[in-house]
TrEMBL record:
Protein name: Glycerol operon regulatory protein
Pfam families for this protein: HTH_IclR, IclR_C
Organism, as annotated: Knoellia koreensis
Residue ranges of the TM segments: none
InterPro entries xrefs: GAF-like_dom_sf, HTH_MetabolicPath_Reg, Tscrpt_reg_IclR_C, Tscrpt_reg_IclR_N, WH-like_DNA-bd_sf, WH_DNA-bd_sf
GO terms for biological process, alphabetical: glycerol metabolic process; negative regulation of DNA-templated transcription
Chain ranges of the IclR-ED domain: 83-263
SUPFAM superfamilies per the UniProt record, alphabetical: GAF domain-like (SSF55781), Winged helix' DNA-binding domain (SSF46785)
Length: 263
């Protein structure tokens, strides 16, 4: 599964669906417009989809009637609606990997006192399926379900280090930076992956959020390919002096999850 790519030519560039399938594809494209934007106006949606403002308005109205988007009466802008949140929560609750990971995440948080995550790869990105918050990280990190470029996260880097397909997808999508410490080139990326393979775990030092450090380990199948990753994140001043200890705990939890999943 990879992120849909909107083009200047509009949704017609995505393939050749017709009739009802085209309408469905356009509706899904509309929802994807909000992946990186908290709210959008009708003109912005129309421009991203390559459709007229009237068409965009009709689609947004229909989506609003079903609860998939909602309109801010003060600004006239649209944002994702609660129905999508409900569906996302239902999907997460039915995820086997999430269900089996939760006790391990609880134990890892108890042992470390840090915020802990479960993430899975999606192309050149990672999607967070679970987060148990603790300390300062609880206030500085976004909500569960957000996706990030893999090269900017500990979980993404440890997955990419042992999965050439994820690493290749990262190179194709480029190296967007969030902080001055973020990886910005393929040379730096490849160097980081070599270091991770040597250590067996990833350290993400203020590359996603300034002042926060992550330690991550892969949940790999019997062939060595990561299917997920566990990580902990905390204030750099608290985590940086205990990397080896934190890595030992995260790696043990990741290996246990792999066994529980029967990988």
């Amino acid at each position: 599964m990879s992120d849909p790519q909107l083009t200047a030519g509009g949704v017609a560039d995505r393939g050749a669906p017709h009739g009802g399938l085209q309408s469905l594809a356009t509706s899904l494209d509309l929802l994807d417009c909000f992946a990186d934007a908290e709210s959008l106006g009708v003109s912005q949606v129309a421009r991203q989809l390559g459709v007229s403002k009237s068409s965009a308005h009709r689609m947004l109205t229909t989506m609003g009637d079903r609860g998939f988007v909602e309109r801010d009466e003060e600004t006239g802008r649209y944002r994702l609606g609660m129905r999508l949140y409900e569906l996302g929560q239902a999907a997460a609750a039915r995820s086997k990997v999430r269900r089996l990971a939760m006790p391990l995440l609880e134990d890892l948080r108890r042992r470390t006192g840090q915020t802990v995550h479960l993430a899975v790869p999606d192309g050149g990105e990672v999607v967070y399926l679970a987060r148990l918050s603790s300390g300062a990280a609880a206030h500085q990190l976004g909500q569960v379900g957000l996706r990030f470029p893999a090269h900017t996260t500990g979980s993404g880097k440890v997955i990419a280090a042992f999965d050439p397909a994820v690493a290749a997808a990262c190179r194709v999508q480029g190296f967007r930076s969030f902080t001055p410490s973020s990886i910005r080139s393929s040379v730096d990326f490849d160097r980081a992956l070599v270091d991770i393979r040597r250590r067996g775990y990833a350290v993400n030092d203020q590359e996603t959020v300034h002042g926060m450090t992550t330690v991550a380990a892969a949940v790999s199948d019997h062939t060595g390919v990561p299917r997920a990753a566990l990580s902990l994140v905390g204030e750099s001043r608290l985590v940086s002096g205990h990397i080896a200890d934190e890595a030992r705990l995260v790696t043990a939890a990741a290996n246990k999850l792999a066994r529980v999943l029967g990988l």
